[in-house]
């Protein structure tokens, strides 16, 4: 097999993976927020939790901060922050375990080599500060959790600094909005 055929297979697999993730994101939103919208119901905590959890998985990109701000008009800040922290924590734990368990080639097909190298560089250079900053701001913290798993980074540090960044982010968002 020549390298051109191999490159075509890699491109095709990336396209398929991209399409599957888009379909998953659309299905999650459709069966939660979309269903409630079409039925004329107010948005539920379950729909927020589902969207928020999915948004913290490394292979789905969803505007979780925007969802949080939107749901603030329906629910008490403390309950929303608790659900946001719980779902983000579980999703990032899943990301970490995937990075820890799966082969590098498998993960490259999902994320892309450039993003992985960039995330790895940040973690190796700044360590816990990277994890904190990426969770504090609307940056790609799920990819950081994935790469932390690939690097066999200390799970305790990932948990502590992720939660610190997430708590601060959601408290600030609830105070502003």
TrEMBL record:
UniProt keyword annotations, A-Z: Membrane, Transmembrane, Transmembrane helix
Record carries keyword Transmembrane: yes
Pfam assignment, any one: VTT_dom
Keyword Ribonucleoprotein among record annotations: no
InterPro entries in the record: DedA_domain, VTT_dom
TM regions (residue ranges): 12-33, 53-73, 80-102, 129-151, 158-176
Top-rank taxon, per record: Bacteria
All residue ranges annotated as the VTT domain in the record: 76-176
UniProt cross-references to PANTHER family, sorted A to Z: ALKALINE PHOSPHATASE LIKE PROTEIN (PTHR42709)
Protein name: VTT domain-containing protein
Provenance organism: Maribellus comscasis
